[in-house]
Amino acid sequence: MQTQKYDAIVVGARVAGATTAMLLARGGARVLLVDRDTEIQDTLSTHALMRPAIHLLAHWGVLEAVKVSTPAVNATQFVYGDDVFDISLKSDAGYEGLYAPRRWLLDKVLGEAAQKAGVELKTATVCCDVLRGPDNRVIGVVLMDRDGNRHPIHADLIVGADGRNSTVAKLVRARETIRSNIHSACAYAYVDGIPNCGYRWFYDVNAAAGLIPTTNDQHCLFAACPPQAFKTRFGSDVCSGLRDQLRRWDTEVAEHLDHRSFVEKPKRYLGAAGHMRHCAGPGWALVGDAGYFKDPLTAHGITDALRDAHFLVETAMTKGFGDLSDYQHTRNQLSANLFQITSEIASFDWTLEQLKGLHMRLNDEMKAEFSCVQRSLTPSAQAA
């Protein structure tokens, strides 16, 4: 490590952390970005980026690197039992549609942009403690390298971007304000040979599925159900379970799926409790799943992470690291209703008509979120 004092140390080098580090460095801060893994590789994800995420990536100048190998999404389809709703997605200035990049691509693009901005990256490094000043303010961290050596390092701001089981959140004693034990269970796979018809979301009683066009002309296929039904549907043969669940809505695609179509071994995800934590305090902040995690069934997690990184750094650069209350307020304002609606959808305790209403509410929240992001990027908002 080149120095023992930084303006900011960001723990976790995936989407939320790499973005936060990049934006802080572009604002003139000296930033250290650390990650416990030796190499940033792929991770489980639904990949779908919503409009705020695309708008931000375009604004930061990194969307082009994603577009090279990831197809644009120009339509979305919602299927409720036998009812089908097709929606065309309007293109926006600077991009042709939505995108759903693989995480090995998106995380790499953001990590490289962070290093290009001057961020120092240290992998195979664990945050094992925080340093506190006389007033109990967090003033640094203790990092442990791969050989077990401990390094106390000071910084004006410590950012936890280390996932839903965040070590930083525990060390700074970030209070959990909302918790939901409601969650779905999912099976994921990547498949070849399916035409890009946009995002496709399928729902029926106690069942959901999605087809998401992603990098290298593949599709992410996921199927979800209540946790108590997961073993019956997917326990013995995940591939067959995915085909059977998809067959409810799209027989043609389901019949296309044989073992040659699955380009990677399917993965199981049994779900986890959702939470919202205080995301800012004296000398520290949380972004991404560290501060706010909800069920993946609404496919909004990456958008949340990019959005919160943006608003954290906007607050830090306009008001300084000493008072991040505006970030806390904005995060709560944009997230509370999304969290509640997602929990209701993940419960599977709905009729299809009720689910349509939940999706209308979700759409209203996402429109408000997009408007908030757009306003924050106008010259008048940045000058204020």
Briefly summarize what is shown.
Helices cover 36% and strands 26% of the residues. The protein has helices at 15-26, 51-60, 63-67, 103-116, 167-171, 227-234, 238-246, 251-256, 301-319, 325-346, 352-376, 379-383; strands spanning 5-11, 31-34, 75-80, 83-88, 120-122, 126-132, 138-144, 150-160, 176-180, 185-191, 199-204, 207-214, 218-225, 267-269, 274-277, 280-281, 284-286, 292-293.
Report on this model:
A hairpin with a 5-residue loop joins strand 6 and strand 7. The chain has two domains: 231 residues, FAD/NAD(P)-binding domain, CATH 3.50.50; 119 residues, D-Amino Acid Oxidase, subunit A, domain 2 (D-Amino Acid Oxidase, Chain A, domain 2, 2-Layer Sandwich). Strands 1, 2, 5, 6, 7, 8, 16 and 17 form an eight-stranded mixed beta sheet that branches. By secondary structure, the chain is of the alpha/beta class. It contains twelve helices and 18 strands.
